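Box 3.1 A note on notation
Throughout this textbook, protein chains are presented in two layers. The first layer is the amino acid sequence; the second is a token string describing backbone geometry. Keep the layers aligned when reading.
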Amino acid sequence: MAEEKKKERKAWIDEIEKCPECGSTHLVRDYDRGELICQDCGLVIDESYIDQGPDWRAFDAEQKEERARTGAPMTYTIHDKGLSTEISWKNKDSYGKNIPTRNRAQLYRLRKWQRRIKVSNAAERNLSQALQEMERMASNLNIPKDVRETAAVIYRKAVKENMIRGRSIEGVVAASIYAACRMLNIPRTLEEIAAVTRIKKKDIGRTYRIMSRTLKLNLFPSRPEDYLDRFCAKLNLSGEVKKKALEILKQAEEKDLTSGRGPTGVAAAAIYIAAVMNGERRTQREVADVSGVTEVTIRNRYKEITEKLGLKIEL
């Protein structure tokens, strides 16, 4: 009945050729407000106007369904892509009224079977568990939504390539997050990711390398400049320090001092030098804690950069 009423309403709107108030034919469809308006007298002819969209061609039912523009947005961060229904835990009906006590046992059984049906086979159970773990890690790392979506897509591809067999779910999830961060230029170090998991940094790196080869991700190595914003923010350094550190890194790249060295160590050394030169001194220990490298690494990179670039600073 509801579908018939919608069709009748649409047919009635389509038949309107002139304003019933002034007889004008200048009718405007305001899709932002959902209104059909007479341009001459301003009469709102219809206030629940639906944007039907372009008449896209579809050659079969599946293609027509794919091109539909209604419904909740699809997301890869949920094992069923967010397309299934959910029975609310609240004991209330669609009108907000409390469900009678005699019907609550039936509602409980419906919730239980709905949860079981959503994860009916081993692949769905794996995805459900893995994506929940991914959401936990991403929340702890303050990773934006687009990175989470990319990480979920990478994990789904790894499942299709049978990379999960013989490896822990948590390890593959961590490697997927690391790969997604590298892909979208939002760098997170292996130390940061290992800190929110029970997997060692070495194992995450190994899984990432295998995943990169198997899925042909073709990711470029991260650069020291990618870490400047985050490290400077954590150390409460000014924009002048960041600007000076960027200049130092550019000079170091011209002298080929960054090749073959860890980007986080080079970035930490540049920040340490820039902070001392701008009078915002930070200890090597403070910089090491933020960057996830050792004080020895910062000292080695610091000495190389100052000697090759001829920088003189007072410690």
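The longest strand covers residues 27-30. The chain has three domains: 10-57, 122-215, 224-309.
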